[in-house]
Amino acid sequence: GRTHEGVDIFAALGTPVFSVTEGYVVDTYFGHRGGNNVMVIGPAGIFYYYAHFERLAHGVERGVYVAPDTVLGYVGVSGNATNTPPHLHFGVYPTTWNAINPFPLISIDRWSN
């Protein structure tokens, strides 16, 4: 079987999602599991994975520089989240796709607006 690598952050449909770090967008795509996805590579080559967006923010595409004040997209239910409440799936992968606990990187204050 597969494991759930990351955290699900439940929020109202359309809530803006900010990047947790500076870096560059490695890819944006639609996948069966993650729906509308964004992958960012940050300092030290750490990958940050954001999934289930309703839609991506304007201008978020491969190669674009992002910072913590950059909106990547908006909370949704795309991919295999279609039968769940709206949420963001967030994963962090520092090396060879071995996930780490992303919870310490999350700023809850950003979600309270």
Q: Note the beta-strand portion.
A: over 45%
Helix fraction by DSSP (H/I, runs of at least 4): under 10%
Cα distance, first to last residue? 37 Å
Count all strands and give the number.
Answer: 9
Global geometry: globular
Biggest pleated-sheet summary: 9 strands, antiparallel
Judged by helices, strands and strand pairing, the structural class is mainly beta
What average pLDDT do the residues reach? 89
Radius of gyration from the alpha-carbon trace, in angstroms: 13 Å
Descriptive account of the structure:
The protein has strands spanning 7-10, 16-18, 23-31, 35-41, 47-56, 65-66, 71-75, 87-95, 98-100. It is mostly beta strands and 113 residues long. Strands 1, 2, 3, 4, 5, 6, 7, 8 and 9 form a nine-stranded antiparallel sheet that branches. A hairpin with a 3-residue loop joins strand 3 and strand 4. The termini are far apart.
